[in-house]
Amino acid sequence: MHNTHEISPNIYWVGGSERRLSRFENMFPLNNGIAYNSFVIVDEKTVLLDTVDISISDLFLANVKHALNGRTLDYLVINHMEPDHCANIVSMIRQYPQLKLIGNTKTFQFFEQFYDVDVKSNYMIVKDQDELNLGQHTLKFYTAAMVHWPEVMMTYEKSQKILFSADAFGTFGGLNGGVFADECDYVLDYLSESRRYYSNIVGKFGGPVQTIMNKLSNQEILMICPLHGPLYRGDDLGLILNKYEQWSTYRAEVKSVLFIYASMYNNTEVAVDTLANKLARLGVKNMKIMDVSQYDLSYVIAEVWKYSNIVLATPTYNADVFYKIHSLLHEMAALNVQNRKFSLIFNSSWGGKTQETVMSYLDKLKNISIVGEPFNIKSAYKDHNESELDALAKDILDSLK
Ligand code: FEO
To answer: Most Cβ neighbours (<10 Å): which of 71, 101, 181, 245?
Structure first.
């Protein structure tokens, strides 16, 4: 049993896909599982870059053995010390007792927090931009703190110009045979999941993503190998680098309107549909309407990353914001959402502090603006509300220019 790919001369993908997992980190729904990527370089010295989740250990260990083709393993680079990648470190040491573990001081702090084995004599501590020559290949280690954990490193292989990027550039979803984005219909099959992965897992840390991208800007990169999902080369490399530039600077990809609403008896929904209909008749294209109750919030967050304008519509519940909109507001603040234009629709039958709560969350977001007056309805949208909604539509249209 083995399943490996030679991705570059003497560099092998030795990962695997786990499609039975229904939630990543026991939180984010998966539609087609997740891939755990790991790589072996065979040179005068042999190197393994990261391991995989415990769920695919058997296949992984067979893959590593196959790639090594009878050689021993000299080094294991630990770019990320989270269990979906580090779960097989201890079994690798058992198999190759002389193995040197390459990480930084934080890597080994976390290693000792997670595991109860004393293998200090195996540690090889590296600092930012230290290099390791393997023969034909040379590895250069870049610390990438908070993308998305403090110990994260990226490893650049100088001869083939390959960046092993840890979780950055990762995607939800198992692989579909090939390991490269150009071996599948990446835009159709993966891009929205790349965005959902980025926004929910890495989204809070746009600043650290910018820091590492600037640090790497003087290195030519011909291939990016993340720890999850397809690998990037050729045109796909430019595509994903552009997306990361936009996503990490919180710049919208689409200049249009995302409506996110909650509605218990369709009355708030009618107001949303009416406003969207007015905007469509004014010429606004590519809008999207999402009933928050129908989605896991990770999908809503991914769309928040995409759109320039967001209309939030919520009924009052227990004299406050409908709870799933409340959770979304909390999540947007926690993930550092920035540079967006919000418009607001409130529906209450007898009062409450909904507007106050929504504003308290929006106040926490950087570089946002409120477009138009908040539109308030009492229980249901009525014809006499129309002129106010027309005014809001006009303000949103102006804000898109
Ligand atoms: Fe894929 Fe942060 O672990």
So the answer is: 181
Nearest ligand 1 atom to alpha carbon 149 = 2
What is the three-class DSSP state of 337?
coil
Give dist(CA 63, CA 356) in Å, integer. 56
Domains of the chain (ranges; CATH) run 5-248 (3.60.15.10), 257-399 (3.40.50.360)
CA of residue 109 relative to chain centroid, distance: 25
CA of 332 to the centre of ligand 1 (A): 21
**Pair of tokens at residue 7:** 């991705």
Residue nearest to atom 3 of ligand 1 (CA): 82
As a whole number of angstroms, the distance between CA 262 and CA 357 comes to 15
Per-residue pLDDT of the chain (401 residues), as tens digits, is 889 999 999 999 999 999 999 999 999 999 999 999 999 999 999 999 999 999 999 999 999 999 999 999 999 999 999 999 999 999 999 999 999 999 999 999 999 999 999 999 999 999 999 999 999 999 999 999 999 999 999 999 999 999 999 999 999 999 999 999 999 999 999 999 999 999 999 999 999 999 999 999 999 999 999 999 999 999 999 999 999 999 999 999 999 999 999 999 999 999 999 999 999 999 999 999 999 999 999 999 999 999 999 999 999 999 999 999 999 999 999 999 999 999 999 999 999 999 999 999 999 999 999 999 999 999 999 999 999 999 999 999 999 99
Q: How far is the CA of 82 from the centre of ligand 1 (A)?
A: 6
155 three-class SS: strand
pTM (2 d.p.): 0.97
Which H or E run includes 163? strand 162-164
Ligand 1 atom with least separation from CA of 83: 3
- Cα of 289 vs centre of ligand 1, distance in Å, is 31
Q: What is the separation of C-alpha 203 from the centre of its chain, rounded to a whole number of angstroms?
A: 6
Report the separation in Å between the CA atom of 85 and the middle of ligand 1, taken as the mean of its atom positions.
7
- For the CA of 152, the closest atom of ligand 1 is 2
Which atom of ligand 1 is closest in space to residue 201's alpha carbon?
2
Strand 288-291 and strand 232-233: the pairing is unpaired
Residues with CB under 6 A from ligand 1: 80, 82, 84-85, 148-149, 167, 227-228
Q: How far is the CA of 155 from the centre of ligand 1 (A)?
A: 16
